[in-house]
Amino acid sequence: MEYSRVFILKDGRSCTVRNGTEEDAPAVLANYIATHDQTDYLGVYTDEITLSLEQEKAYLERKRESTSDAALVAEVGGLIAGTAGIDRITAAEKARHRVSFGISIDRDWWGIGIGRALTEACIECARKAGYVQMELEVVADNERALRLYRSAGFIEYGRNPRGFRTRQGRWQENVLMRLELD
Ligand SMILES: CC(C)(COP(=O)(O)OP(=O)(O)OC[C@H]1O[C@@H](n2cnc3c(N)ncnc32)[C@H](O)[C@@H]1OP(=O)(O)O)[C@@H](O)C(=O)NCCC(=O)NCCS
Can you give the pTM of this predicted structure? Predict the structure, then answer.
């Protein structure tokens, strides 16, 4: 899905949130790997990311052309600070109103409003695509993410105490959240 909007961050800088393109692939891949290195709250380990540059380019192009999915980047001063996206959960008629949401931002850029901008942009894209429910899962001790989601209107509808198991053998409880869009 194509999208572009400029947001003003808490420090006064402009942040362009737009769909990623083929040209963004190297920066998007680098950002994806960096964010997975920086936090234990995401669902895959960095060494499990096997995406090649060519695959990343194809992925971004596919998402740009899609009417059901979006892959967005947040660009500040020519740099990709973070990414977010929406993905249709299923094409089956009874559940095609549901879309999932994911987001990750480089730690150097946390706390200045990029998370909020990307979340708002994804909500706009989800509405434009005609979804009526947006869903996500977040690790229960990821306070920053929980605050962001709650302030965007997401509500908790359940918990999975064994959502993730870390390599150290520790369970990470997942909070299930949803946002009604109609
Ligand atoms: C979670 C994440 C997306 C938040 O992005 P961010 O750019 O730091 O968020 P923002 O600056 O837009 O802040 C959004 C909200 O987060 C909360 N927040 C900000 N700073 C915070 C802090 N120091 N402590 C707790 N909450 C904080 C606030 O509620 C804030 O809302 P406000 O704008 O009304 O103050 C980002 O930290 C991230 O990518 N983390 C790693 C990957 C991850 O955990 N992804 C989510 C997986 S479900």
Answer: 0.96
Query: Which residue's CA is minimally distant from atom 30 of ligand 1?
Result: 148
How far is it, in rounded angstroms, from Cα 140 to Cα 160?
9
Name every protein residue with a CB atom under 6 angstroms from any ligand 1 atom. Answer: 35, 39, 41-42, 103-105, 110-116, 136, 138, 142-145, 147-148, 151
For 112-159, what is each residue's pLDDT tens digit?
A: 999 999 999 999 999 999 999 999 999 999 999 999 999 999 999 999
- DSSP 8-state symbol, 12: S
Pick the CATH number of 4-136 from 3.40.50.300, 3.40.630.30, 3.40.50.620, 3.20.20.80: 3.40.630.30
Work out which ligand 1 atom sits closest to the CA atom of 38.
41
